[in-house]
């Protein structure tokens, strides 16, 4: 009881003696009214909290006739194929999945409260992939080559010719580059967007954009050519299906990039080791050698022999004479008589269009390796990366490894367009909630909680040793490059030397490994890394080893030696 509400009983003088009958009769009604008021306020607050969590208010905008949203209001497909947002569907959200026109169950609005299993019934992923982009398959293309071969200028000019860059923007780049004393860099600035890249005149990070051919939707990744940025180039190459290798046809420049110390050889070797089998060689700056057929054939002869040794089939390598600065033979076939007199092959765009699209692992459990992390304007955060396997829908719960924490997908963006779903091959941005951003780093892998990716610090692998000056011995320090991960590691054991083609064991427990050897080794990393066996996931089973600024080996994971366990979100190792 509250002392301020107590009252002495009538006719009683002793202090502290109270009339409890008076309290129970009159004050009970007052307390009931107070309780009722608090109950109503509590219920309203609860409803407001639920609305703010499940149905956040967002600002809408219209761009090029398409309705888009900002925030977490993710559009989804409702009845009769009508696109609705979570806010619009609030009043008619079904408690159970509804039936589509074909009898399949689908959920009108995916929300975090729905289980992953129910959300998965909403779409036929293969059918949706066939319908997307007018039936055009996706192709992830990386552009590689020695520094100053003209990669950014070549692709920037191609994008301009395709209409991806308007004349006003291009004029602005031309004026700004002239003012900076770099008039020839105007087209390169289409992809080299940072001030430091423009000041130095070199690509430093992987630039990414999208364009379309007659039969493909192409995600373009412009990789840096300078040797100081090889790790960034590896990150781009690891996410590619096909590649364009740009070489400079100028006298002395091709030789500088191709001979010892140049990046032409290393880049070609890297993309092949990371799974790229189709390659277009853009022999650039042919206008500077007057479109000489002899020079073109000389470059083909030298490059062809090396690419065959690197593992490329002759039938999968295509050579195209080009000029990135003048735009000849890029989007359309050239009409320059000096070229057409001896070359009747495709333009660069035609060759890209002719590449075969790879088979995607959409049937396997979801896997996405994080390439960037940043704070979102809302309550969550965003990660970017390429989906290597499976598919994802808004509302799904996914697991982050190695932190071993789950979160909810609130939004999916592909090429600045909000989507309900994305699948293997897509470079996406995911908006996530239910997890602290500080627990996510570049290199973490998001996966299906029911079938998580392996996490380990020791694994065995089959490696191919490149051109090395110092033999590899037990305890040799290396830098492991795996997807977007760059992790210090050690060659813990030399297990055996193998025959290059048959895989037969030639020698057990060798003392060292030298150039050209094929071997089984055990590698130990300083921190836990998420990876898969090559036989299960080719995309997630490849890696590169570097030592003192040079790539010394490529490998595939064959066995995980210590699957790191987790307890309450913390890592521990079984004894």
TrEMBL record:
One of its GO terms (cellular component) is cytoplasmic exosome (RNase complex). Its main location: cytoplasm. It comes from Amphilophus citrinellus. This is HBS1-like translational GTPase. GO terms for biological process: nuclear-transcribed mRNA catabolic process; translation. Residues 90-107 have a biased composition (Basic and acidic residues). InterPro entries: EFTu-like_2, GTP-eEF1A_C, P-loop_NTPase, T_Tr_GTP-bd_dom, TRAFAC_GTPase_members, Transl_B-barrel_sf, Transl_elong_EF1A/Init_IF2_C. It catalyses: GTP + H2O = GDP + phosphate + H(+). SUPFAM superfamilies: EF-Tu/eEF-1alpha/eIF2-gamma C-terminal domain, P-loop containing nucleoside triphosphate hydrolases, Translation proteins. It is found in: Cytoplasm. Keywords: Cytoplasm, GTP-binding, Hydrolase, Nucleotide-binding, Protein biosynthesis. PROSITE patterns: G_TR_2 (PS51722). GO terms for molecular function: GTP binding; GTPase activity.
């Amino acid at each position: 009881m509250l002392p301020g509400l107590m009252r002495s009983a009538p006719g009683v003088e002793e202090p502290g003696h109270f009339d409890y009958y008076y309290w129970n009769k009159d004050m009970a009604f007052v307390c009931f009214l107070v309780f009722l008021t608090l109950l109503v306020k509590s219920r309203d607050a609860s409803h407001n909290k639920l609305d703010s969590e499940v149905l956040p208010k967002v600002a809408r905008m219209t761009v090029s006739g398409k309705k888009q949203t900002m925030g977490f209001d993710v559009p989804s497909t409702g009845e009769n194929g009508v696109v609705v947002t979570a806010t619009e569907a609030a009043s008619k959200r079904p408690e159970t999945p509804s039936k589509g026109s074909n009898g399949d169950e689908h959920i009108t609005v995916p929300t975090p409260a729905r289980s992953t299993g129910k959300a998965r019934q909403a779409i036929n992923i293969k059918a949706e992939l066939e319908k997307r982009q007018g039936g055009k398959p996706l192709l992830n293309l990386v552009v590689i080559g020695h520094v100053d071969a003209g990669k950014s200028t070549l692709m920037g000019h191609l994008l301009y010719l395709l209409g991806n860059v308007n004349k006003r923007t291009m004029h602005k780049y031309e004026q700004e580059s002239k003012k900076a004393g770099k008039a020839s860099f105007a087209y390169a600035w289409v992809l080299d967007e940072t001030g430091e890249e423009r000041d130095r005149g070199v690509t430093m990070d992987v630039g990414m954009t999208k364009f379309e051919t007659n039969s493909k939707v192409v995600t373009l990744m412009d990789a840096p050519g300078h040797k100081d940025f090889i790790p960034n180039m590896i990150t781009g190459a690891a996410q590619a299906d096909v590649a364009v290798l740009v070489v400079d046809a100028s006298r002395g420049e091709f030789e500088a990039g191709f001979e010892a110390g140049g990046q032409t050889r290393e880049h070609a070797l890297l993309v092949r080791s990371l799974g790229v089998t189709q390659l277009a060689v853009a022999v650039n700056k042919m206008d500077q050698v007057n479109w000489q057929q002899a020079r073109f054939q000389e470059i083909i002869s030298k490059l062809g022999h090396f690419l065959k040794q690197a593992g490329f089939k002759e039938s999968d390598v295509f050579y195209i004479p080009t000029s990135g600065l003048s735009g000849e033979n890029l989007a359309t076939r050239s009409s320059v008589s000096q070229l057409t007199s001896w070359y009747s092959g495709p333009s660069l765009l035609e060759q890209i269009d002719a590449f075969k699209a790879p088979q995607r692992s959409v049937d396997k459990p979801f896997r996405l390796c994080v390439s960037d992390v940043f704070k979102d304007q809302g309550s969550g955060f965003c990660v970017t990366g390429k989906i290597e396997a499976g598919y994802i829908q808004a509302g799904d719960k996914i697991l982050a490894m190695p932190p071993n924490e789950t979160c909810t997908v609130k939004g999916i963006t592909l090429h600045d367009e909000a989507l309900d779903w994305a699948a293997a091959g897509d470079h996406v941005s995911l908006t996530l909630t239910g997890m602290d951003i500080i627990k996510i780093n570049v290199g973490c892998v998001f996966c299906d909680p029911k079938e998580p990716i392996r996490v380990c610090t020791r694994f065995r692998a089959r490696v191919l040793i490149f051109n090395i000056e110092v033999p590899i011995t037990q305890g040799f320090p290396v830098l492991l490059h795996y997807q977007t991960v760059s992790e210090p590691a050690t060659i813990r054991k030399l297990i055996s030397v193998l025959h290059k083609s048959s895989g037969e064991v030639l020698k057990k427990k060798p003392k060292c490994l030298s150039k050209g050897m094929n071997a089984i080794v055990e590698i130990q990393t300083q921190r836990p890394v998420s990876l898969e066996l090559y036989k299960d996931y080719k995309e997630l089973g490849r890696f590169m080893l570097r030592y003192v600024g040079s790539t010394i080996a490529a490998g595939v994971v064959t066995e995980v030696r210590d699957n790191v366990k987790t307890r309450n979100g913390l890592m521990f190792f079984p004894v």
